[in-house]
Amino acid sequence: MGRGMDSEIRDFHTIVDQFLLQLDALKNTLPKLMVVSNGLLKRQVDKFTNTLEKYGTLEEGSENKYKIDLRHITKVIRAERSVENARIANDLIPRSFIITLVAQYDAYLGDLIKAILLSRPELQRNSERSITLSELGNFSSIDDARVYLVSKEIESLLRNSHSDQFEWMEKKFNVPLRKGLDSWPRFIELTERRNLFVHCNGKISEQYLAVCERHGAELYKTDKIGASLEVTPDYVSQAYSCLYEIGVKLSQVLWRKLFPDQLEDADRSLINITYELLVAEEYSLAKELLFFATKTIKNHANEVNKLILTINLAIALKFSENDKACEQLLSSRDWSAFDSRFKLAVAVLRNDFDRAAQIMESIGPNGEISEREYDEWPLFKEFRKTDTFVEAYQKVFGKHFSERFEEMSIGHQ
Length: 413
Known about the structure:
By secondary structure, the chain is an all-alpha fold. The protein has a two-stranded antiparallel sheet. The longest helix is centred in the N-terminal third of the chain and has 47 residues, at 73-119. Helix content is 68%, strand content 1%. Strand 1 and strand 2 form a beta hairpin.
């Protein structure tokens, strides 16, 4: 289920939304770049092979050693160098994505803290940052001076290690941030790996091993000082999920702790984020955030918002092929007292499609669920494929379900 966003919280919401869009953009771009890079490497290897065969003679008894005429040695060397360049690019592109992912998180953290400190100036009263009288003359207002001090505070914070940053936030805002955060070791390993790529050409250092061990990060037995770290597609996917999860959880905990009058806004943000994950079929990440939303978070604006999050969790469980957990979650509530949206959702999740069709007809064309929601809501992913759904849709809207595509096409001409 999705909810709208109020303009009054756009500033805070935009920080989170921009960060998640950046993560999505990077995640979706890397596979395309790697296809191009792999294609270039293959072409360079083929070119090098052809150059060897054209200008060289295979040594007797060897499968890959060639004698090259000195007149053509430069051509062979250049072809070989092109292969090496393409291989290096294949290694560097995934590394650069890890560096950029962490850089976007750092920028996000800075924006988040800045928004908090500027909205809650009393949190800066005990700050050690100060402005001299001569510096004060450079500002046109007290507010400008405050922005300057906050910016300096954030610059100093971002120069610290990522674990120190969390410690600073926990003390500054008097809230535990790492308790029960199972992804913390992965987060530390990721940020330390980023440091290796930036400063050590990806070679494992003593500091990397020590920091990872101190925070419980899993290390392979082959990891040793001087070994080179690689970035596989699976690792990039895990890095994306880790930063996405921690970024959302961090914003939600701080939002609810420091701005208790904005619980409705925080709920709506979390509902929309997890809804979009369901649309994208990112079920593992959706489950992680929805368990957090329904089990860890205790303060919601109202019961309806928590129920929406609960239904979204049930959807994530069902489409993760965990019907048993889905049913256990549904059975933990009495849904009879709630409106038709929830009754329909429960019926669909239990595969009671006949009952779901009856509820669709009772809701009608202008009820709690719109025509667009029947088309887009991930809840109906499998139900939409059935004759039962198509017949109920025909009764409710007076047209065949397939006709909506014709209307959408006409509307976009």
